[in-house]
Amino acid sequence: MSWGLSVEAGTLIAELRRRRVIRALVGYGVAAFAVLQIIEPVMHGLHWPDEVLSFVVVALAVGFPIVVSLAWIFDVNAGRLERTGSAATNLRGVQLALVLVGTGALAATPGLIWNFFLRDRAPAQPSAVAGTATPSIAVLPFVNMSRDSGDEYFSDGITEEIINALTNVEGLHVASRTSAFAFKGKNVSVRKIGEELGVGTILEGSVRRDGNALRIVAQLVSAGNGYHLWSKTYDRDLKNIFAVEDELARSIASALQPRLVPTPARPLVREATASVEAHDLYLRGRHFWNKRTADGLTRSIALFQRAVDLDPGYALAHVGLADAYGLLGEYGGISTIEGDAKAKAHALKALEIDDSIAEAHASLSLVLDRDYNWASSERELKRAIELKPGYAMAHHWYAIILNCQGRLEEGRAQTGIGLQLDPTSLILNMSVGATSYESRQYDAAIQQLKQALELDPAFPVTRHYLSLAYTQKGRFADALAVLDKVTEPTPRYVGLRAYVLATSGDKAAARRLLAELEQRSKNEYVQPGVLASIHMGLGDADRAFAFLDKAYAERDWSLRELKVNPMWDPIRPDPRFGALLKRVNLE
User: Fold this and answer.
1) pTM attached to this predicted model
2) 3-state class of 236 per DSSP?
């Protein structure tokens, strides 16, 4: 019996060859492969849903049995379509039809298995990680597709939390929020974004919110060739937002490189609060906090506070309050000592609720350094980095702590780590030049700060240090020209202009600005360290030290640079300066 079946199978194969069925299958297979290679980039360019590709695959698979049947019946001879002669096989009727359909189905099976079962789990996606040694991704700001344009804070918040979730995937390099958001609203190719951020894949998507209904559309694209790798649409209720974020983060990690980046069993996104409204307020608060203006910080405080009122156990909302109060004190909206007292209380409360939050440890460190508790501040930052190694701002703040203590090379190394994590960060790029300035390498500082200014010519902190570097070089006209383009006339920058004028010898102009600041101090907070620098430039050491004592009492943030900032060099030999260094634990 088996011998008879073998003979029949051999006869069938010979007949398939005679009728050129196998050749037709190979030709059709090559054509189908070409169609699939073309359809993917077309889908990506036209933003078609992923289901389109599945329909195309199924249609091509159905074509295999049809091609087999047509090739069996017809042949092309001298450019004419002719019916092929009778079959040599004993198969007839239904049996023959089943054999032909089965042959076509067998030919289509590998493609179907690959597309529907193996494609998303393929271990090798070289184009997805082109140019990177480890799997890497940048999450671009999700587009707000809601009817209300004011919901943009929500889409930005979703993006930020997806970034934070993916940083929990061991072995996956994730571009920082600052770097990713630098491309918001810009028409830049994914290849260019991949090159600038050093990543192999790009996640882009949209958020549509209608009441409690939420739709998130996300797609993963290879930065190397722009090909679509994965996409999915999530229709969920807002009550399950944390579950949606966790599901999305896991899907991305699985699609990227499952063998190199195993998805952990633990949730990537923890449910930080059970209150949807509190979470929404937190996202609004972060939206305004990221503006880094006095008005934005004040508005963020109100939103974070409302979130805490709704859910007192919402640790991240307490972190938001700590960050906002801490920056508001530094930006001069309130006194440093008042801002830090509130910042410390909320940072400690966040840690009491959950001491595994890296951002809370980093927030607490900033309060401690202004209390001149350098060892404790460093310990908190080390803990933050241990909990979240990809937190670029923790490396930046750690660099500040090290620089303030005169450990400039260690600080430079931490800034370098931060830049690797967040190459387009304005504050980190500025810090490279600031460290050179504090190292008395003024030419290098000027070059580095000018390069940092190209990222954002309006960034005032870069202009602050560039004007100081020019001043130390005696290039006072350049220093004043840099300050001319500072758009916010806060006491900090008015005082810096007065210091440059006084140092250059134009004491009359410096005194006019000093009088302006003294008048403004009756209605708004003016940092005493700013006033001390002007009196020092005017040659009045006694008045300078009087304001430095006041700065110490008020925990003015500018005193943290006392040991390394060259601007204090004229009064550094004075014994009172050494005594002040000891009081701030820098000597």
Assistant:
1) 0.63
2) strand
